[in-house]
Amino acid sequence: MTTAQRPTLEAVARRAGVSRATVSRVVNGSTTVAEEIQEAVRRAVAELGYVPNLAARTLVTQRTDSIALIMPEAATRVFSDDQVFPGIIQGVSQELEAADKQLVLMLAGSAAGHDRVERYTLGRHVDGVLFASLHGADPLPGTLARAGIPAVCSGRPLDDSVPYVDVDHLGGVSRAVAYLLDAGRQRIATIAGPQDMVAGIERLAGYRDTLAAAGHPPLVAVGDFTRESGAAAMRQLLDRHPDLDAVFAASDLMAHGALRTLREAGRRVPDDVAVIGFDDIEMAAYTDPPLTTVRQPIKEIGREMTRLLLRMATGQPFEQTVILPTELVIRESA
Amino acid sequence: MTTAQRPTLEAVARRAGVSRATVSRVVNGSTTVAEEIQEAVRRAVAELGYVPNLAARTLVTQRTDSIALIMPEAATRVFSDDQVFPGIIQGVSQELEAADKQLVLMLAGSAAGHDRVERYTLGRHVDGVLFASLHGADPLPGTLARAGIPAVCSGRPLDDSVPYVDVDHLGGVSRAVAYLLDAGRQRIATIAGPQDMVAGIERLAGYRDTLAAAGHPPLVAVGDFTRESGAAAMRQLLDRHPDLDAVFAASDLMAHGALRTLREAGRRVPDDVAVIGFDDIEMAAYTDPPLTTVRQPIKEIGREMTRLLLRMATGQPFEQTVILPTELVIRESA
DNA sequence: TTGTATGCGTTATCAC
DNA sequence: GTGATAACGCATACAA
């Protein structure tokens, strides 16, 4: 367990009988080094098990070749088998892989966590920052932008401080509600998402607008995108509006919770009550009955955010806003 | 959008009319600085928006105050609404929060990703490394250990290179199978996990042993812990052993897939076929019928791994192995 | 093509 | 209590 003094450029240079500069050139793939010397250096590197010290390199190059993806939620929420964050992570991950950059995932749920993330990103530990969903008016994106650190959000930041990528919430919701209306549903309720998040706000607005246009009254209960909250909201709705015959839930997870409540209440789906979710996570095809839902291209959000960020970081032209399409996926629950 | 030259210690020092050393002392909370000077320095820091350059600090302190959690899976698998990884992340996150260390999550699914992670960790970009599940015989833990970088695995590494934390797979499985036997089930099948992962191997072993002890033959199909693979494995089992009356699935997700296949095949659960899963993820209470399963304290695994690592990193005594208990949670599927 | 010298922004070891 | 000054490990402009 000897914390063996790790080899430095200097050590490799001595071993190979050359200068530090030459070793550095070889390590960084410069072609202006004689073949045989390259060979000798490479052998020395292998023998000593040399690995460049990233901090030292960063200090001089001003680059870290890694970018941060920040989840401003408690770890609990982020990964509570909601597939939205994971989907974004996938997309980001794929795109960064292609650019040979390291993904650094950071959770900023607590106040302390948020501080730590701020120190970390502002401390130039990453070349750019991606925000996966913002709660309320987080000042961090703006702060980063002012510090000259490229940043991109998913969903419009309330202060318009940085470019963002989002999906067409309104279009998706209105198609879902229109579908229920077309099917002759008369009492269409909704289980809305948290009202301090863009996704929660926009989906509720879409529901209200479409329903109002058709001359129907809104029946609203609010959840927080989790399954448990969906189950509770459904109980509330059944209580207040026993005659409802359809529900649009702002997330598949809440729809799943609602399904359970409806089963417990003896309501058949879709015969008595039609249910439509939002997201189209993998689980949606496995609920009983399989869930009709609004699909959003989650992974694509991650990819687009990353492309945008990389363009910003390399000084290429970039767009301020990217909006991706949504689509109604019809299964059996409605 | 001016990439404003960010202020350094030097700039703050000039502004406050003191030396760099003094500014450094104040920034790092040294008490040996006169109150009024501290005040002046703090003001200068605020005015300039100074944030320490982490690379520079790391270069001299040899610490990064961040630790890596490595997921050696494709992003796809890691977050495919399997709740195991998310649970570990939660536990790790909580424990690191308490230690005021930054969590750096890294995906090492592809070969390129694995390389990048190797460079990153070996490059001393983190103070320690946590491995969430290993596939086959990954040499990285051993390499890190040799380089003097603290590392901990979840599940025993095949080469015993580093300390690890795991749960009592065998005990949990044998309790589940014994429960089925006690209920009078005669033809008990299993949907095993991937056989290049400790969890997959041990759970299958537990099934075989317990069944053999009772004089029953093993009926095995292999999946990869995903829902889809569980559904497929169940079809295979029904095909080969139409008379089976119970199934133990090595993960809740596979159990969920099996449930779907059984429904499609017209088998009632638990009347015709009893089903038991493993994990007890949140979803288990929401399946139809709710899933009987072996609970493993997932979050606790993450916490224990982290505690172990932090002890290693600070030179405190630590144990080579930590085994956590499992428990049979009885619901309605068996 | 290769080596020398310098600087990146901190912290830490000294004197004062 | 405070200020010079020397590392830390690397990349690079410049000289040879």
TrEMBL record, chains A, B:
One protein family per Pfam: Peripla_BP_3
State the UniProt keywords alphabetically.
Answer: DNA-binding, Transcription, Transcription regulation
Species assigned in the record? Micromonospora echinofusca
What top-level branch of life does the organism fall under?
Answer: Bacteria
Database matches in InterPro entries: HTH_LacI, LacI/GalR-like_sensor, Lambda_DNA-bd_dom_sf, Peripla_BP_I
Keyword tRNA processing attached: no
Name it.
Answer: Substrate-binding domain-containing protein
PANTHER family listed in its UniProt record: HTH-TYPE TRANSCRIPTIONAL REGULATOR GALS, LACI-RELATED TRANSCRIPTIONAL REPRESSOR
Give the classification, highest ranks. Answer: Bacteria, Bacillati, Actinomycetota, Actinomycetes, Micromonosporales
Start and end of every HTH lacI-type domain?
7-61
